[in-house]
Amino acid sequence: MSIESQHELPQQSPGGELEPEMPRVELRQTILQVVVTVGIAALFVAGAAVTSGVWFKVLILGSAAVIFLGAVVLGVRAFRSQRSGGRWQVYQGGMWALLMIFLLWVFGAIGAAMA
């Protein structure tokens, strides 16, 4: 048996059963959701750049709210995936990434809104 053919064999669990192949769509979905969420927040900031007054503050603070909402949605997806026995860790990682981005974003937004 050659080395190449060894990599094609399915993995066996300690009990001897063959593990089914798991689709890896969770990572793609999480990355897409993080990128889209940050993109929508950036559009809010771009809209705030061309306005002034109350709309400026609404759009700047709204951009931070979009990122927080995206983190909450990923947290709910992680919870649902964990309850159904799925790969919840990927969604939780995306949630924590968005929460860290939110912390940086919100302090910048508050500073810009107060100026």
Low-confidence parts: none
What is the strand tally?
A: 0
> Averaged pLDDT, please?
87
- What fraction strand? under 5%
User: SSE order, as H and E?
Assistant: HHHH
Radius of gyration: 21 Å
Task: Estimate the helix proportion, in percent.
Answer: over 70%
Number of helices: 4
Q: Termini, distance in Å? A: 70 Å
Any idea what the shape is?
A: elongated
Describe the structure.
The chain is elongated, with a radius of gyration of 21 Å. By secondary structure, it is mainly α. Helix 3 runs antiparallel to helix 4. The longest helix has 30 residues, at 54-83. The model has no long low-confidence stretch (mean pLDDT 87). The chain is built from 4 helices and no strands. The protein has helices at 3-7, 25-49, 54-83, 88-114.
Compact summary:
The chain has helices at 3-7, 25-49, 54-83, 88-114. With 115 residues, it is mainly α.
List keywords for this structure.
mainly alpha, single chain, elongated
Show the helix and strand layout:
Layout: H1 3-7, H2 25-49, H3 54-83, H4 88-114
